[in-house]
Write a structure and sequence with these properties.
DNA polymerase, domain 1; Alpha-Beta Plaits; single chain; alpha+beta; Dna Ligase, domain 1
Length: 429
């Protein structure tokens, strides 16, 4: 018997028998803010907000539960949050630290089962079906996970059910540090009274359509006519009905079977509009460099580069072009992103967000016309040589933090951009 089994060896509670699948969803409570309170003891018990500056166009990444009492929530404009909670402690965030703790939490879950599917930096599904990898009761495993996460200095809420849908909704029922098991056979009783919006996949537009047919709760959806749902939402309608009845059959993908992304990108939001070509080109270079870092970290090479801009009116504009060869080097695809700028931007137009991405992984690159040097100008440095410089910068940042080394292009925009969030953002924690 291992140490984890011994933890519950003396637990003689009588729990209802769990027969069938046991899917859990672990959600870290107010994760970013909780880490900040962990690392700053003086902030504990006080309202803490992680996000961009209220003086600019920042948004709230997350807020501590002390701040949420004032109505502050994720994705809220920072200026609004400051009005609601003027005494809050603000921080732009320490994302390397959040990733560090996230990795530790995921390792704890993997210690209980190899079937772990991470959904975001603070959220993961896991399969602890009795008899698959352990005969221990799922509730006892979930309780132990909560204890082990708490030992790190943060807390989590866990939902248990026979499907991902039930587990997700259950995890949101009691927070923070809630544990909500929905035993097999009780799914419909649990789901029926809940509003439609509680189920993921039902956004505002879908909810409006369902409500137009008189549906208000998940119970209404569970008993809706299949033909009506198909006419209303296509094949998606009956799928939603099955989920509302607790009959979803979506397995937890093993951790080792991480899906290859369709694209890798880096985006930056600026508190003040960029209106000059000089600043926009610098922003493209910065986004391309960080995109290159992410590509190399994931050992991916792409064949299509995309430039994305978000204007001052919040509209998005994109342009893309094939790259001459599969690459992860910003010195190759970055200049191509630069050349896309005139296609989607005119001098003086205010730009709020700049993004550069690469896609077309595993695809053969389209042939490109080679340029001839006919004017006798010196040849630029070989892309491979510049790539070596990028790899060296990657290693320095990995060891000493993302701000340990910067290029001149970074200095041009110093103080102008809003800090990036990790690729996996919090899921409404």
């Amino acid at each position: 018997m291992d140490s984890h089994s011994k933890t519950n060896a003396g637990n003689h509670r009588t729990l209802p028998t769990w027969e069938g699948p046991a899917i859990g969803l672990l959600d870290l409570d107010a994760f970013f803010a909780s880490v900040e309170q962990l690392d700053h003891p003086a902030w504990r018990g006080k309202p803490v907000i992680v996000g961009g500056s209220p003086k600019d166009r920042g948004v709230v990444s997350t807020a501590s539960y002390e701040a949420r009492k004032y109505g502050v929530h994720s994705a809220m404009p920072s200026a609004t949050a400051q009005k609601l909670c003027p005494n809050a402690i603000w921080t732009r965030g320490h994302f390397d630290r959040y990733r560090e703790l996230s990795h530790k939490v995921m390792a704890l879950i993997l210690d209980e089962t190899p079937l772990v599917e991470q959904m975001s930096i603070d959220e993961a599904f896991f399969d602890i079906t009795p008899g698959r990898y352990s005969n221990e009761h799922p509730v006892l495993i979930a309780e132990r996970l909560q204890e082990r996460v708490a030992a790190l200095g943060i807390t989590c809420s866990i939902g248990l059910g026979t499907s991902k849908t039930v587990a997700k909704i259950a995890s949101e029922t009691r927070k923070p540090r809630g544990l909500t098991p929905v035993y097999p056979g009780t799914e419909q009783r649990f789901l029926a009274p809940l509003p439609l919006s509680r189920m993921s996949g039902i956004g505002a537009a879908t909810e409006r359509r369902l409500r137009s047919f008189g549906m208000r709760t998940l119970g209404d959806l569970a008993h809706a006519d299949d033909e009506d749902l198909s006419a209303l939402l296509g094949q998606y309608g009956p799928q939603l009905k099955r989920r509302a009845r607790g009959l979803e059959l979506s397995p937890v993908r093993p951790f080792v079977q991480k899906r290859e992304p369709k694209s890798v990108s880096a985006e930056h939001t600026f508190p003040h509009d960029l209106t000059t070509e000089h600043d926009l080109l610098a922003a493209i270079d910065l986004a391309a460099a960080r995109c290159g870092t992410r590509l190399r970290a994931q050992k991916l090479e792409g064949t299509v580069v995309t430039l994305k801009l978000r204007y001052h009116d919040l509209s998005y504009h994109t342009a893309q072009t094939p790259v001459g060869r599969a690459t992860d080097d910003e010195h190759v695809f970055g200049p191509m992103a630069r050349r896309l700028l005139p296609q989607i931007w005119h001098e003086g137009t205010g730009v709020r967000l700049v993004g550069v991405g690469l896609s077309g992984f595993g695809r053969e690159a389209e042939p490109q016309q080679l340029a001839l040097n006919l004017d006798g100008a010196p040849e630029p440095a070989a892309p491979r040589d510049l790539r070596a410089l990028s790899e060296a910068a990657d290693e320095i940042r990995r060891r000493f933090g993302s701000s340990a080394v910067s290029y001149g292009r970074d200095m041009r925009l110093k103080g102008k951009d809003v800090p990036e969030r990790p690729d996996d953002e919090p899921g409404g924690n």
